[in-house]
Write a structure and sequence with these properties.
alpha/beta
Amino acid sequence: MSAAGLPEGARGGLHDAGRVFARYHLRSAFRIRVHGRERMPATGPVVVIANHSSYIEPQLIFGMLPRRSAFLVKEELFHSLGGAVGRFLLAIGQIPVKRGEVDRKPLMTASSVLKAGGVVGIFPEGTRGDGDVGAAERGAAWLVRASGATVLPVATRGTLKPADGRRRWRPRVDILVGEPFTSAIGKGRTGLDEGTEHLRGELAALVKTLDEWRSEHGF
């Protein structure tokens, strides 16, 4: 690995600068509050699983995490602006993944990061939606089984536009980091399916907890 905690070819200094930018550049548009950031394990391999309802969550979580992280990012983004976006994402250690296809290369890259003690982020839902985590794909469970990594669930609310399509002035966005946990995922497809459901259930429960907290506090 070319930089600690990142895939081969990534540039650590640029990655760190990108994290600082991601941490602050959206604060002019959103009132962002992070709860439980200290729950991130200080060392060792970690798979971050997060719900996904807009383009904003990946940037927010990437900037919020106190450690370097490599996220699995849909490949289409890597072709934007004539490939310039892709070159930048690769340089900061992000991993392209083809949606809707069996593609082991990104999983193997992510597994290498984890086996070196790094952090990998993944959105188990596989695509943007309501963010309730009603369904999940197998990639996160596969990574946990392959690496033995700790799992860190992260829930985000407030990024989704209202039904009328008009966003409020600086809406409140809450990011809730859950308790890290381990998951013993069995062999074969059955073990992978059961592990996927375990991760989905933990993340969905965290999203529900955040929804209830926001409702109690008038958000």
